[in-house]
Request: fold
Amino acid sequence: MKNLQLEKRLESIPAPIAAALRQLLRRSRKVIFVRGICGVLAVFVGMILFAMGVDAGLLIVSPVARWILSVAIYTCTAAAIYFFLVRPLARSYTLAGVAKMIEAHHPEMQERLSSAVELLTTVDDPGLRGSQKLIDALAEAATDDARKIRPKNEISMRLALPFFAAAMLFILVFAAIFAISPRKASFLLARAAAPFANLPNIMALDLEVQ
Reply:
């Protein structure tokens, strides 16, 4: 429903402005999605490493303690999915708000873009909007501004860099642990991810029956 309303309003503004706003919206959601995926991955792998470390360091025997660790992993991951992906992607944008995002990086536009969008998409009575000639002149100037917009320059993928760096750090640590001791790492991972499995603690790997 919101997307339909947005498209109807985009139809009422000049094509170059509408195209620039559409591209910026897509770019914004793409950056949010990449940042969110990296954030969720960082939380999930980080919690797995934490659970494996606690299990190895404290030699957990109690099934209850194992369940608590595993539930913490999945709860934190679910919370990360909500905060990093669901909530940001569900956020609705107004056309004027997107235009103001652009103008924040381009003070030389002097708010022509957002003013034009607001005037061309308003549902107010035409008599309250002012002179149509002035509105047309403003829209023409805003159209020229819109043609200069480059979405990649307006919203950089660098916004996702801290989340990407955190995810890569945890993944590298995870890979290093598996490279050093694949058998123990696999065992600890199974205990962390599947608390319902009837697995002994890490000391069982060092036992030999003769």
Observations:
- The chain is about 75% helix and 0% strand.
- The chain has a mean pLDDT of 82.
- The radius of gyration is 26 Å.
